[in-house]
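queue> holo job accepted (UFG)
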Amino acid sequence: MATYLVCGGAGYIGSHMCKRLHEAGHEVVVCDDLSTGHAGALLWGKHEFGSIEDANFLRTLFSKYAFDGVLHFAALSLVAESMRHPQRYYQHNVAATLNLLGVMREFEVKKFVFSSTAAVFGEPQSRLIAEDHPTAPMNPYGLSKLMVEQILRDSCRAYGIRAVSLRYFNAAGADPSGLIGEAHDPETHLIPKLVRKAAGEDIVVAINGTDYATEDGTCVRDYVHVNDLADAHLRALEHLDYAVGMHTFNLGSGRGYSVREVVDAVREVSGEPIDIPTTSRRPGDPSHLVASGKHAKAVLGWAPRYTAMGAIIETALNWHSSATFRAWMAEKEAVATAGARADQHSAQG
Ligand code: UFG
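queue> job finished
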């Protein structure tokens, strides 16, 4: 049994990780300021409220617990937002991670698993993207993640840290228990938007672009179930028990689905004939992003267990139709409204 710090453990992928670590018999400490995460997701381990931007908070945390390693999910992750607010992205995703790594060094914590992304690649030059594919991010979000990968490479060499960077392709689905899942506001991702529409929510969703150089003209993505991602992290931690240096893995299934195929699959699983119009391309969208899962399979022994799109969608539909999902969203809205009222009050006073 080990004790792991999960930064961003109240978020979508972080909360699934906490459940997985707990099931594997580990102690979990979540550090999360609930800026985007949900209090309702804090079901496993202890919660320490605070931000990784605050080095003194981190020092208190590292003094209180003897961590065997850190899993870092706390980041901003919207491509379009990163184009509008690049400094915010470099601050949260790069500067704050440097803070965390600095405190890890002070306390001699050596194991680090980092949430990276397929956005480090930009427009791909091959059908399947392997780890050595050239990196050319098309937005500050992808670049912020690539910068941290470089910082990790240098830190491993200089300070003896052991790190794994996991480049997620498209995370999707929810834990079948219905206890946790994706709950973003605003929601920008394809599967949750479609599923929420199928569950009867009044949500605007259209197919972004039908003139890509793909089989049916819509973008192709490699969707990976969030519990398969959690499983890869657990394997990464085990790998770091003996592997030194920095290791990078692309996490995907090797099978791409077009936007149209995903729409059809949601119609089929939900039984709802949702009407989805088409619109123009979304800026910054590569046409085709599909991982070669070979390296993760060879080194970590990892392959996704959710191989059918229908099975991924079923778990998402189960979550997005639940009372728990609606309660989380209502709570976030109440907090936002109270914050806006307080702002108005102080502006008047
Ligand atoms: N899409 C639509 N309509 C929508 C929402 C999405 O057609 O209402 C399309 C997108 O244009 C894209 C595909 O569905 O072609 C998937 O879009 P998502 O927003 O679900 O996911 P992305 O592929 O944009 O995002 C993923 C990761 C990011 C990463 C990005 C890199 O979630 O972390 O790939 O391009 F940065």
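queue> The longest strand covers residues 111-117.
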